[in-house]
Amino acid sequence: MDSSLDKAVVRLPGERISTAMRWTLLIALIVICYPALGEEPLRLVTGEKYPPFTGSDLQDGGVITALVSHAYARNNVATQVDFKPWVRGYEDSLKLEYDATFPYISTAEREANFLFSDPLYMLKMRLYVEPESRWREGSPAELGGAVFCLPVGYEFAGWVSEQREELTFVRPRTIEQCHEMMLRDRVDVLISNPANVAYLATLARSKSRHVTLRELPAPLADVTLHLMIPAHHPQATHLLDRFNDGLRQLHSSGDFERLFTAHPDYQVVRSRAER
User: Fold this and answer.
1) For residue 97, is pLDDT > 50?
2) Is there a contact between 152 and 172 (Cβ–Cβ < 8 Å)?
3) Whether the Cβ atoms of residue 92 and residue 47 lie closer than 8 Å to each other
4) What is the mean pLDDT of residues 2-28?
């Protein structure tokens, strides 16, 4: 009996050490694996019918949607992107139903409610008319009596924004509807950008139609598109830092440029620009 006790006493400390080690390893594995297993994908929302940048009918949801997902992926952050009408997506983001929304240009109202990422894209806002239109310059003095078309969710820019209370606007859902209204003489001037107009022309050709718009020489504004995170989001600064870091990685590696040049919907824009 004494011999058995001795064996038990000698064996017991060894068992305690082994058990402690097993618990230590288990806790370490939980800590290491928790971010991969426990983190929910970030919920992002963007708008429809904004080619080649965003849209559920575009490859990868559009080139900007692909860019946002790739930037977060550089820091192993999974994302889930929903497509909603622009106004609804904006309002749902303010309600924290989404962690971030994109792509938006900066305005005073938005800066009061959101944190803005580093720039995603330089947007050249321009004024477009039909080839035979009487409008020639695009200056405020010339276009004071014109009817402008700007889809819902698209932001005003330049002198048009400053004089918006004095100007006349039509706000359909899509840029295609703006062009249809122009053909029917319901609007005079389309507010858009070269990428959007180039895609519009290509889309029309695919439907055996023809789109020819003339860009007025006076530039409206050059603005940048951004990801926005609600300022009152509990992790707003952290989410913004991770995104901006991923964006910098894409730039430094050359993947930022490659993402745009390889995206089929953006290739449409590049091919027209090179003509």
Assistant:
1) yes
2) yes
3) no
4) 41
What's the pLDDT tens digit per position in 29-77? 333 333 343 479 999 999 998 989 999 999 999 999 999 999 999 999 9
**Cα 216 from chain centre:** 27
In order of their start, the domains of the chain are 42-119+226-273 (3.40.190.10), 123-222 (3.40.190.10)
Q: How many CB atoms lie within 10 A of CB 243?
A: 25
Please classify residue 236 by burial: count the beta carbons closer than 10 Å to its beta carbon, then call 0-12 exposed, 13-18 middle and 19+ buried.
Answer: middle
Q: Which structure tokens are listed for 191?
A: 């507010």
Pair 140, 159: CB distance under 8 Å: yes
Q: Cβ(101)–Cβ(90) under 8 Å?
A: yes
- Alpha carbons 65 and 45: distance in angstroms, whole number: 10
Bond into 103 cis (ω within 30): yes
Q: How far apart are CA 75 and CA 73, in angstroms?
A: 5
Please give the Cα distance from 69 to 102 (Å, whole number).
Answer: 11
- Cβ-in-10-Å burial (0-12, 13-18, 19+) of 87 comes to exposed
